[in-house]
Amino acid sequence: MTDRSAEMATAISDAAARRQPLYISAGGSKRQLLGRACELPILDVCGHTGVTEYQPSELVLTARAGTPLAEIEAVLEKECQTLPFEPPLFGGRATLGGTVACNMSGPARPWAGSARDLVLGIKLIDGRGQLLNFGGRVMKNVAGYDVSRLQAGAQGTLGVISEISLKVMPQAEHSLTLVYEMNAVDAIDSMNRRAGQASPLTAACWLDGRLLLRLSGAAAAVEHTATAWGGEKLADGADFWRDLREMRLPVFAGPEPLWRLSMKSTARVVDNACPALIDWCGAQRWLRGNFQLQTLQQTAAAAGGNASLFSGGDRKAEVRPTPDTVSVRLQQRLKQAFDPLGILNPGRLYGWL
Length: 353
Prior knowledge:
alpha+beta, Uridine Diphospho-n-acetylenolpyruvylglucosamine Reductase, domain 3, Alpha-Beta Plaits, 3 domains, five-stranded antiparallel sheet, 11 helices, 17 strands
């Protein structure tokens, strides 16, 4: 356990005095994912580690931002608890701060919530080198502007996360996976119909002509639902969901750009955006290919969502569509408030931010 917050604050303050932009990095597992290229001197926060407080009875854990997720999971495992949003560990390189900054969540996202939803409080170093404290360690402490959760998905553009308090949950007593052979259109209908029923459903995806549904919870409820729903039980179900969470499935490999579309879960598949993988009960869809962002965005927008270039492709160009005018002004004002000199991950989210 090492507290480097004072050291990091000094480094940011010095950089601000020199007007020197910085790229914030810990494990480096997401540098080529999600955001635009940011080739700048690195502010390394990987040594800022340690679980500083853990209350199993209260289901709350607090850790420094550079703490590897694998270390946090090992601590939770001893109490039969877990991070319910199932973030990828990326071979042990993923850290808590980077995961929250990128708002990374796994297969359980529609049921357990996102990384953003589980954040209770945060300590943050702004672009002036000031150490700020937002939120707390219980839900009722969140009032007014929820700055803690504002950091989720900001990719370090609004400050350097120093410490995070978040909600954890008990591990499921029992889990199994059901498999059905069907096409993508039928799978979307089926998974949404199942999600509307009272059941222990905790993951639903379609891949390679198969619909996979994960049931987790009390053993009696899981087995009862499995009997009622039919389908074939997948022997290595836990391995499949782990590989999906870690993005180790073949669909995530390859030289072509990887695109992520977020949209209404019930949206139909269209020809110009036929996914290789449908996850989150239809709300997240993955495509590979040399598409144009504008073309995919039009498709996603028609289904109430958006498109982004997740990995590969031209990362010096914009990788997500520009928001509406009001949202642009709001984001620019937030950037000005937290990082007035624009030294923290400039251009990482958008070229204009």
